[in-house]
């Protein structure tokens, strides 16, 4: 029995060490903080500079660089700085930069029912205050906001989803029938 428990503990410690190494190697906490900040703050010039520095740094992978530009392009859709970031990505041999234009084409502000960011009553604006008020003085960057999908699912489960926003939703589902 002790040998089996020891083996399980060893596996868990090994998994945690591997995950920790990946987080440190890819600097995922720094990237996550920047992603969270872009979702809840409006500091375009600061974000632009940070993303350019990350793109030019060999310490970050191509996928992470592209992901930051994708978020920036959704946040500041139509801004000329996006073209500069795309140019920087190409200069650093990051592939699939066409995804930036495709993302804006298929998920841009003209295609979305609700705003994601900004002072225009964006979904993050509405939830940021409630969430950050509940987590004041907590340094964990993962608690800055909840995803848009989380809030929709929560509204469906509570039966408070607005039929006008989601005409295919129904309040006729009996309680307990949602699995």
How many helices?
Answer: 8
**How many E strands?**
0
The percent of residues in helical segments reads: 55-70%
- Ranges where pLDDT stays below 50 over 5 or more residues in a row are none
In words, what does this structure look like?
The chain is mostly helical and 179 residues long. The chain is 61% helix and 0% strand. The protein starts with a helix and ends in a 21-residue tail after the last helix.
Task: List its salient traits.
single chain; 179 residues; 8 helices; flat
Secondary structure elements and pairings:
Elements (H helix, E strand, L loop, with lengths): L1 H25 L1 H13 L3 H13 L5 H14 L5 H11 L6 H10 L15 H12 L13 H11 L21
Helix pairs in contact: 2-4, 3-4, 3-5, 4-5, 4-6
Task: Describe the structure concisely for a colleague.
The protein is 61% helix and 0% strand. By secondary structure, it is mainly alpha-helical. The protein starts with a helix and ends in a 21-residue tail after the last helix.
């Amino acid at each position: 029995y002790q040998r089996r428990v020891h083996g399980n503990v060893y596996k868990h410690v090994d998994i945690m060490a591997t995950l920790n190494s990946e987080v440190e190697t890819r600097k995922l906490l720094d990237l996550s903080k920047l992603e969270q900040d872009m979702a809840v703050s409006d500091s375009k010039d600061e974000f632009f500079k940070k993303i350019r520095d990350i793109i030019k740094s060999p310490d970050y992978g191509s996928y992470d660089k592209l992901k930051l530009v994708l978020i920036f392009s959704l946040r500041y859709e139509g801004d000329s700085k996006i073209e500069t970031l795309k140019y920087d990505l190409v200069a650093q041999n990051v592939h699939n930069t066409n995804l930036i234009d495709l993302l804006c084409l298929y998920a841009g502000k003209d295609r979305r029912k609700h705003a994601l960011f900004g002072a225009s009553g964006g979904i993050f604006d509405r939830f940021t205050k409630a969430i950050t008020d509940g987590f004041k003085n907590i340094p964990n960057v993962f608690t800055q906001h909840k995803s848009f999908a989380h809030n929709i699912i929560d509204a469906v489960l509570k039966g408070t989803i607005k039929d006008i926003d989601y005409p295919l939703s129904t309040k006729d589902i009996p309680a307990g029938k949602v699995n």
